[in-house]
Known about the structure:
The structure holds two protein chains of two kinds. By secondary structure, chain A is mainly alpha-helical.
Amino acid sequence: MIQEIIAFTILGFAVGFLIKKFFWKSKKKNDCGDGNCGCS
Amino acid sequence: MSVQNINVALIGNPNTGKTSVFNQLTGLNQQVGNYPGITVEKKMGFCKLPHNIKANILDLPGTYSLNASSMDESVVIELLLNKNDKLYPDVAVVVTDVENLKRNLLIYTQIKDLEIPTILVINMSDRMERKGITLDIPYLEEKLKTKIALVSSRKGLGIDELKELIVSYKNITNEPCLNASVIDPEYFEKLQHAFPNQLMYKLWLVITQDVNFSNLDRNEVRNTFTKSHSELKRLQQKETVKRYQFINDVLKKGLKVDASMAKDIRAKLDRVLTHKIWGYAIFFAILFLIFQSIFSWSTIPMDFIDNTFASLSSWVAEELPSGILTDLLSQGIIPGIGGVIIFIPQIAFLFLFISILEESGYMSRVVFLMDKIMRRFGLSGKSVVPLISGTACAIPAIMATRNIENWKERLITILVTPFTTCSARLPVYAIIISLVIPSKRVFGVLNVQGLTLMALYVLGFFAAILSAYILNKVLKLESKTYFVVEMPSYKLPLFKNVGINVVEKTKAFIVGAGKIILAISIILWFLASYGPGKDFNEAETIVKERFANTTLTETQFENEVASQKLENSYIGLMGRAIEPVIQPLGYDWKIGIALISSFAAREVFVGTLATIYSVGDTDNESTIKSKMQAEVRPETGGKVFNFATGISLLLFYAFAMQCASTLAITKKETNSWKWPAMQLGFMSALAYLTALIAYQILK
């Protein structure tokens, strides 16, 4: 039973990792500092 | 006493030894990443200095001036103008090459105008005697209004003096070394009057450059003070001429070159290495030696790794309590990781040779040599750099096309670069070559497996330039072209730089690809260990019924059950669904699964086969290679990996676009899905057709 729980948890991590790697879009950051920097 | 952190930016032209200085300062305390939102490489490291100071060293991309013509150069300008950036330097260190001081000082004078404390590093000082160069350091320091460190980053000379200058950077004057506003005094006076709190040179960059700036309303400055495009260009040219006049005047007295003292072999070497016949002969001889060595030298460590992982699988299966987790470890995770680790020796050797060629200055001669040929195929000499660096990975190689000024040449280079044999193809080639090409020597010295590997690399290169030729004819894009290449001096490769490069590139492959391969191996194991319906769940009963009249040993029975289960598992069903499409290429459904999973990344191919062949395998001690070698076709009893299938697979992987990340970067660099879609369609069709023809002829 414990082996099954660990094995399926590992499977969950593996699936989650691949989804994050190939389908998750990270937000772009524009590090312009304070004030009106003129970047769009 | 608390630690004082200071930011140090290393700036300079390409090929000035900036990265060597960075390596000397930071050792292995380095981190490589990307600038936010863009894919320009950011190298950071730290260095502990006297008086409890910790210097955060930023190795900025090589740039010739603060007039941005590429994304790399924009990164430098944006950082130097944004005081709110957390990486904004407390002190700038401009690295120059003693042999190219005149050209290298242009950017130095521009940075001085930004009133950042600036140290001038004159690198490669160990060559001064050989080249007959003498420098009047006090005079140069006075005229350039800075402190100078005479450094030989290759020999580690002058690094301690540089560290001392960094510690006492507050003693360096911020005063510019020349007055650039004399190019149009009236215009600059008005500009300064309108924005009295801003630096004049910063305002000038706002007007002339298309980069992001902090705390400045670009539109306001531009609307009020803009001139016509041609007028701005004329002023920029005047500014550059003014700066070079100043540099010439300073160097006239500060630098002396006595040609009679020079013992230069550069010209002699260049004559041979860029010769229209000998140049190519030497280049191909070097490539030939590299691929022979990759195969010959890496056999012993690869066999060792393969056997170690096989023994580990066996040990885990025997020692851990039986159950699903033990099976996952011994049949899924360990063979999956082994499928990546095994290729460390070959990848490390490949990067070792490429680093040596780059470090020695030979690669620039190759760029020059190839320009004439490349131009006939619609490419530029500069396309050689992406095509060669594509042997590591197509992703940075496609990013490296940014220094190709002509859009059509750049687009064609982006589209054909994935044909270059990348390190992800190497594991696939290596395992298949070792299975289907005999390990014998011709003429006593030439390893046939090494020759095959070289042939595949050459094939990839020719596929790239022939595709470029077609694209050049098909694409209706017009733009002007010119070719400028830096010819650095020849140097003995520095062991430290080569070593760091090999470690970083190999680590990037193993860590980057390894995580994906591990995750896919785990999922594959589950898909291969579970299945729907009676055919899977009642496998033992079905086998018993099938062999009711035959006596099977216990091992034979277990193998038959494992085979029945695998065939009817989820992955088995998926593989069988695509079998009709891949059967004409000589592949069975198991190879089909590896083809599907390796679409994410080619290197997953071997790991996938290692996992599939391990599921239900009672002999955990077998290596990946021996498992593949033992695989037979049930219908004929012949080997799955025979010569025809092997060649078909090699050709398929030579041409197929099996890399989701490369498609993503092509989309990013071309800003359109049209080009990656075309790339995928063309490469897949070519791969299928060549593999089909090869198999049908050879079977």
